[in-house]
Amino acid sequence: MKISTRGRYALRVMIDLAEHGSTDFIPLMDIAERQEISEKYLESIVSSLSKNGLLLSLRGKGGGYKLARHPEDYSVADILHVTEGALAPIPCVVNDGADCPRACGCKTFRMWKGLYEVMEKYLSGVSLADLVQNGEGTMDYII
């Protein structure tokens, strides 16, 4: 599975807001400048994050974006699900094989499902606060 630029940029936006935001709204232009990402491209990303309750937005003078919760209350999985959808390596594992007529006899289904579960567990265990701390937080590596 490959995470798109949309997912990677969403993480960068969220980290930026966690580092630079407090109670104030941060203009998108400031985030775009710091992250060296097109403001136009970021508009669609922050729109999705706002619609899904991860960000608060305010229009007009003094407007911008800020986190809706504390950084420790976001997991990487939360953020990537908004931008990427399911993080499954193959589509049939999302619905436990219900959409696949071959799932019952598939020799690789359990392997793919296991990979999906490991990825979900790991990404759900990494918080935005962990990323802000450059991975020096409570991230537990599953190996």
Topology record:
Layout (H helix, E strand, L loop, with lengths): L4 H16 L7 H8 L3 H13 L3 E4 L5 E4 L8 H9 L24 H16 L3 H5 L11
Antiparallel strand pairs: 1-2
Helix pairs in contact: 1-2, 1-3, 1-4
Structure annotation, total helices: 6
| CATH architecture name of the domain at 5-67 | Orthogonal Bundle
Order of SSEs, N→C?
A: HHHEEHHH
Mean pLDDT score, rounded? 89
End-to-end distance = 18 Å
Q: CATH topology of the domain at 5-67, anyone?
A: Arc Repressor Mutant, subunit A
Strand content: 5-15%
The percent range for helix content is 40-55%
Based on CA atoms alone, the radius of gyration comes out at: 17 Å
So what's the CATH class of the domain at 5-67? Mainly Alpha
User: Quick one: biggest sheet?
Assistant: 2 strands, antiparallel
Strand order of the largest sheet: 1-2
Please state the structural category: mainly alpha
Uncertain residue ranges: none
Shape: elongated
Give the CATH superfamily of the domain at 5-67. Answer: Winged helix-like DNA-binding domain superfamily/Winged helix DNA-binding domain
In short:
This protein is 47% helix and 6% strand.
Can you walk me through this structure?
With 143 residues, the chain is mainly alpha-helical. The protein has a domain at 5-67: Arc Repressor Mutant, subunit A, CATH 1.10.10.10. The chain has helices at 5-20, 28-35, 39-51, 76-84, 109-124, 128-132, and strands spanning 55-58, 64-67. Strands 1-2 form a two-stranded antiparallel sheet. Helix 1 (5-20) crosses helix 2 and helix 1 (5-20) crosses helix 3 (39-51). The longest helix has 16 residues, at 5-20.
